Amino acid sequence: MKKIKVLVNEDKCYLCGGCAGVCPALAIRVSSSWQFFEDKCISCMICIKACPVGALSYEEVAQ
Amino acid sequence: MKYDVVVVGSGVAGPIVARDVAKAGFSVLLVDKKPAIGTPKQCAEGINVNVFKEFDIPYDKRFINREIYGARIYSPSGYTAELRYDKVSGVILERKVFDKMLAYYAAKAGADVWARTEVIDLLRKEGKIMGVKAKHEGELVEIEAKIIVAADGVESTVARLAGINTYAPPHEFDSAYEYEMIIEGYDPDLIHLWFGNEIAPRGYVWVFPKDEDRANVGIGINSDNEKTAKYYLDKWLKENNIPTKKILEINVGLVPVGGFVRELVKENVAVVGDAARQVNPVHGGGMYEAMKAANILAKWIVKALEEENLELLKNYTKEWWEVEGPKMERLLKLRRAMEKLTDEDIDVFVQLLGGTDLEKLAGGNYFEVVKALMKHPKVLMSKRRLEILKALL
Ligand SMILES: Cc1cc2nc3c(=O)[nH]c(=O)nc-3n(C[C@H](O)[C@H](O)[C@H](O)COP(=O)(O)OP(=O)(O)OC[C@H]3O[C@@H](n4cnc5c(N)ncnc54)[C@H](O)[C@@H]3O)c2cc1C
Ligand code: SF4
Ligand code: SF4
């Protein structure tokens, strides 16, 4: 499986916290900003599909 | 800082727990990361009118936008079924005011309340959970508490940090997107729901009126869908020629619609509301369930503190599963069966429902209605349709 880094489009994101809720690895924290913890992420892409507005995308990273 | 109880999250569940525990004379701190409790909201704001009595909440016009008398559902080909009472059956709230007032009632009952305070971790000493670590305007604060309540909504980080398993696969969430907008031509005394696999996969489109011509217009779809909720809502509005030039507010959010949490308590931490996935799996409404669970939890917190026996907290899990569990499991089964409906099935059901005594159905006395439907040839000939109805019995 490819290793990814999740990217947020801050102009689209509503900071609703939904992606943090579906993430099985607690790799996202949503407070007054959207934060990603790459070391925790298991590259499952669940958050990307779940975002109601499509604010998330990804880029591949070298393993 | 030391309290008997710290409640994380001041949505619907949190303030009810805080209020009821404070009323019993124990010290409570209620925190929320939002600078203004209730804002922004993630909700269509519809709720049954009975909750005010059941949970001792004032029927205060400051947070009631509109009284509702029933519902109308629409099938993909345009069949409708309507349920209208002569008495008020539900209300469309103003959540921003409602949530803040719930926190106000908690404060009045004796709880301390702190907005703009984000819990970032648990406070552990010698392996035991002693409270929470929080951030308030950039400052780190340690809050000691005998009991920690995770009422932090769909994100559910606090419970997970404590080791409570609130995980469920993405299919057990709905993704939701909503406009508060000017919309005309829909009876403002009813809520309106549209079903169909092309319209809203797994979920529905809703119009919840807040005024004659102003409504929450939103959608929920399965969160593992390739397309976004926004995509489907915009498509529906366009196909129905509904102008989108007067948008007052946009809301987005996720709703847990299944995968209930088995163990709601671990040591001195309890999880409640959306964080515990206590949401009606069929319609995605979570406010009632959040209040109901908060009510049960508060009762056991008070008992545990009175008798200085934290083991008693576990009775919250037991009582929730006894009181709410069976209903929720049944609704989940129904939701899973409904997911298999084709558009043609939906047409048939809505058509048949349109010709039945819907009041009986809504009153919970749906046994007869379902039985009658099961005898209809269009249902009898379809295994899938029969299965759906069987799930209801
Ligand atoms: C678009 C949409 C429409 C909906 N429509 C309806 C409806 O019409 N009727 C209905 O009954 N339900 C509806 N729901 C569901 C309903 O909104 C929730 O079920 C309900 O709000 C759950 O209440 P809660 O108290 O558990 O969580 P929430 O109301 O989500 O409250 C959780 C609170 O915790 C705070 N928080 C989170 N993490 C932290 C932290 N680390 N530190 C401090 N604070 C934190 C958040 O800021 C938030 O205020 C809808 C949901 C969505 C997304
Ligand atoms: S789900 Fe989407 S809108 Fe919500 S916080 Fe995550 S990225 Fe932002
Ligand atoms: S890809 Fe998976 S693990 Fe990584 S942040 Fe998204 S949901 Fe979490």
TrEMBL record, chain A:
<keyword id="KW-0004">4Fe-4S</keyword>
<dbReference type="GO" id="GO:0046872">
    <property type="term" value="F:metal ion binding"/>
</dbReference>
<keyword id="KW-0479">Metal-binding</keyword>
<dbReference type="InterPro" id="IPR017896">
    <property type="entry name" value="4Fe4S_Fe-S-bd"/>
</dbReference>
<protein>
    <recommendedName>
        <fullName>4Fe-4S ferredoxin-type domain-containing protein</fullName>
    </recommendedName>
</protein>
<keyword id="KW-0408">Iron</keyword>
<keyword id="KW-0411">Iron-sulfur</keyword>
<dbReference type="GO" id="GO:0051539">
    <property type="term" value="F:4 iron, 4 sulfur cluster binding"/>
</dbReference>
<feature type="domain" description="4Fe-4S ferredoxin-type">
    <location>
        <begin position="4"/>
        <end position="31"/>
    </location>
</feature>
<dbReference type="InterPro" id="IPR050572">
    <property type="entry name" value="Fe-S_Ferredoxin"/>
</dbReference>
<dbReference type="InterPro" id="IPR017900">
    <property type="entry name" value="4Fe4S_Fe_S_CS"/>
</dbReference>
<dbReference type="Pfam" id="PF00037">
    <property type="entry name" value="Fer4"/>
</dbReference>
<feature type="domain" description="4Fe-4S ferredoxin-type">
    <location>
        <begin position="32"/>
        <end position="61"/>
    </location>
</feature>
<dbReference type="GO" id="GO:0016491">
    <property type="term" value="F:oxidoreductase activity"/>
</dbReference>
